[in-house]
Amino acid sequence: MRAYDLILKKRDGGELTTEEINFVVAAFTAGKLPDYQMSALLMAIFFRGMSSGEITDLTLAMARSGKMLDLSQIRGVKVDKHSTGGVADTTTLVLAPLAASIGVPVAKMSGRGLGHTGGTIDKLESIPGFRVALTPEEFAQNVNSIGLAIMGQTTRLAPADGRIYALRDVTGTVESIPLIASSVMSKKIAAGADAILLDVKYGSGAFMKDAVQAEELARTMVSIGNAAGRKTVALVTNMDEPLGRAVGNALEVREAIDTLRGEGPPVLQQLCLLLGAHMAVLAGLTASVEQAVPLLKKKMENGEALAAFRRLIITQQGDDRVIDQPELLPQARHVIPVPAAQAGYVVSIDAAGIGFCAMKLGAGRAAKEETIDLAVGIVSKKRVGDMVRREETLAVIHANRLDDVEQIKSTLLGCYRIGKDPVSPKPLVHCTISA
After folding, report:
1. What amino acid positions are annotated as catalytic residues?
2. Beta bridge partners of 344
């Protein structure tokens, strides 16, 4: 079997067999297939696409290229949740303890961020002392003990995906639904969960800019998950404006604490309740989403959801005083309001632009090796449809340096489009996709 022949086959619209896909992935992971041949194959896939069978085969080959995590020692149905990412997307910090509070065993592996803010692991590290490096034994023990553990993603998980993505990133082949879907699902399958819940974002603050694209990606990932024996459900959700208010690591931890108290941004709370309800159904704890939502609301109201977050912090050696004393989280030296230049109604918000401003402050990474400033970020005070008075605060900048602040302030002001007439925001959920 030669890679050259497989490149020609895919270039000409042929369908690769399971054996051919396994050969390519194994050879590339082992360093026996040169980058230029893998790049050529990726470009052929980009233009020719892949059948559902090919996508599943590619996903499983990448999942099996490294260590497959065995979570069988954890009691109950393990449900993993993945978001395709967006601005002010604090859902994991809220959802993990919320789901654990009703008995869903949450064994979550998360990554670091590349872009406007850090990932879940970066955000948790803004809690003093919080330990994200757990052994597999500690990971399983914590879930069995308190129902919840979150650890950093190991490089031994789906290493083929990491190598392939590095090539896609520099060869113009990132925007391919078969390649995006197999990348996401290879890590989810290798992580060992019994069921997978996907939150696929669309809009200005998401990778997928329109709902049709996002729905296609969601259907592809659901198909992969179910073909791999993992019950999979996807929600396609709106990211045309920031989900929560806070964009920044410590700021998002504080917002997650507020949300677990039932005092967070309504849209963030709504989505977390809905995702938590789907997790409850996937775990077999309730028969329907409608049954689960009031149970989750009650856990917010009676403090049990927040107590689950406190247990997570304590078990992973963090300082749980941050729950009652959020000033113990990293705080920026400068807090600068951004006032509206005119009165009216917020017609639209450039979520990606707000994310870019947060990254310029140091809340995110433009490159993997960059260091994040955990204290800085932006808090948005308005949503689409809100009325605004002239000079009323649209957003607040949290900064540790002032050299770029005026430029960031100007850019941020341009992220809010204000008109004379009121508008209605888009629905949060575009659709739900299951088997």
Report:
1. 82, 161, 168, 183, 187
2. 388
